[in-house]
């Protein structure tokens, strides 16, 4: 209104849409974004809106600090960290490295980790980058495009809600995952982490651009289309450049939790049967024994009527759902990307199968 | 020889005696000091003798850095850390705190951790303090007299042989144990740690003085007395102000390793039966159902013929052993000390029973 450039911003009013879209990109995992949304709402009310900066607008020498929640989001509800602790975790890493953060970023687009960084951004008075390190959700720290670009996960900071803090330096990003995972478990299965600190140049080159805006757009579309009694599921597919693979009723859900992840299988019956294999996220979709889509592409389950995303924990017998597939960031399909997040890494005996936009059935 | 004061020093020739004495103070735990002795021998050959400084000679503003091995010493044999990694772990903590170490110290007198600090001292060219934080061996990080003095275990550094390094800051010393233990397990069950960094004034007030000299003296006496076909067991008891509780043959050893510690029970038959309860260290000695001595006092098992210390892992059916008891540092008998290392902490349903020098049986 004063003639200066209007900077995009995220306000408390955006959080409902952002959280819904984040649960869509979470592809069944990433946790219910409810707690992240609550914390962000509190921080935005207290500190005002957070400026949103496109990766392409980052100066080369920007100091970009991602922040995230590691562990089980369900546990975080029980022992919610204070807003200050989240900012302190970023500050602990910044102090260790000896630089001053200029921007906050999301390392994951999906679930709680799309809203969690807004808390740090609001508290520290910093803008947040409109992008993330995956373009979706994945369960382990090394599973980010930064790893493919040779950017270190460490030094990283890790903290709990009581005030215990660690700074880790690892020989590679997978070791960082192992070390941080063990601390997270000791910290009660939920920790705050800040890792993959990057320059602006590194962030521009390695982040998936636009994912916070995309989440908000998806979340808004679902609400709008639903208000018009339209096809919310189709609207989500359109926003993601994906398509509906299958619609039907959940007729079987089998879960095992032996390895600390929510592993399992869900059967969606309808015109034929689609079997979903999940480990936090939906990773493989099979129709009649034939693999139709696998990680790294996105497999998304929505409530057929409302278009609301359904997490793997919330899948229930009798639930009427639609299964969407959508393309992942192209870099995930490189040999290094497939090694990091392809189906074989997760223990599925199949080559990766890419999302195909043609409806051949 | 130049008329200046002769400083005491530890040379490679002292290591055999020092390691033997350390295994005695290890009271069955602390690990076989063999690997620590090998590493120390290599470091002392390369860098020369290490000066030994009495706690009482420490200036107030000395910066004393303990260094130790955490985890299973048996594992360390498989993946021996380089001499440099040990020094680097001290350096990582010093850098984090922002001070320059002036002295190295032992946090534990017993097993590998009496010789391990000599490696860092030799490599960094620093003197080692003639003392330690326990006056014996105990299995957990918070079990040091420093905790009773309000000295923090953290900031602490922790590193593995590959180059992974963490710096931890905890809300209390028991939380430091939990966090560092989980990292140690992920690091392959053996890690190098530097913790309880102290000023000279704090070290003077909180260390048990003279334990490295005591270990060396005990180790020498065993060799001398054995050479004279004398009573090596009696000589050890005399050095420690203790007495022989029992001599006989090991007639039963039961072990369980469910909680990550080598828990178990050993029966020594002879004139009556003495039952030893151990968890890494020997913690309770019972005769005919009556508790005779408990932690924090020292319960030591020696080979009856040779006077060589026997670790709890080495206890075998048919082994002819002598069981000694000796008094712990008086501070361990305070209410705070008993809370930290008394028999109930270890899960034994008995009040602490102090060593009694009178032979009433």
From TrEMBL, chains A, B:
Any Pfam family hit: S-Me-THD_C
Domain S-Me-THD N-terminal: from-to ranges: 13-169
Every S-Me-THD-like C-terminal domain range: 172-352
Gene3D superfamilies: CV3147-like, CV3147-like domain
InterPro entries in the cross-refs: S-Me-THD-like_C, S-Me-THD_C_sf, S-Me-THD_N, S-Me-THD_N_sf
Source domain of life: Bacteria
Protein name (database record): DUF917 domain-containing protein
């Amino acid at each position: 209104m004063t003639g200066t450039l209007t900077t995009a911003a995220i306000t408390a009013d955006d959080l409902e849409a952002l959280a819904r879209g984040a649960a869509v990109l979470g592809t069944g995992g990433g946790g219910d974004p409810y707690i992240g949304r609550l914390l962000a709402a509190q921080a935005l009310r207290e500190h005002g809106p957070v400026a949103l900066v496109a990766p392409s607008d980052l100066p080369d020498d920007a100091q970009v600090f991602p922040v995230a929640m590691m562990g089980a989001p369900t546990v975080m509800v029980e022992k919610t960290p204070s807003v200050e602790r989240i900012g302190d975790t970023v500050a602990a890493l910044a102090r260790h490295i000896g630089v001053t953060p200029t921007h906050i970023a999301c390392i994951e687009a999906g679930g709680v980790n799309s809203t969690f960084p807004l808390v740090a951004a609001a508290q520290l008075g910093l803008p947040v980058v409109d992008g993330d390190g995956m373009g979706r959700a994945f369960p382990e720290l090394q599973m980010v495009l930064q790893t493919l670009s040779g950017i270190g996960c460490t030094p990283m900071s890790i903290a709990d809600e009581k005030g215990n803090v660690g700074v880790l330096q690892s020989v590679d990003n997978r070791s960082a995952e192992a070390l941080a995972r063990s601390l997270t478990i000791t910290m009660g299965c939920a920790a705050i982490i800040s890792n993959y600190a990057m320059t602006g140049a590194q962030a521009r080159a390695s982040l998936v651009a636009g994912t916070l805006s995309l989440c908000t757009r998806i979340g808004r579309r679902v609400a709008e289309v639903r208000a018009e009694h339209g096809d919310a599921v189709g609207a989500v597919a359109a926003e993601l450049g994906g398509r509906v693979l299958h619609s039907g009723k959940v007729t079987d859900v089998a879960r095992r939790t032996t390895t600390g992840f929510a592993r399992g299988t869900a059967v969606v019956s309808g015109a034929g049967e689609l079997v979903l294999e999940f480990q936090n996220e939906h990773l493989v979709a099979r129709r009649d024994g034939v693999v139709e889509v696998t990680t790294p592409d996105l497999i998304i389950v929505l409530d057929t009527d409302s278009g609301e995303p359904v997490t793997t924990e919330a899948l229930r017998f009798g639930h009427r759902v639609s299964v969407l597939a959508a393309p992942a960031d192209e870099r995930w399909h490189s040999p290094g990307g497939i090694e990091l997040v392809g189906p074989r890494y997760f223990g599925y005996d199949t080559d990766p199968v890419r999302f195909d936009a043609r409806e051949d059935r």
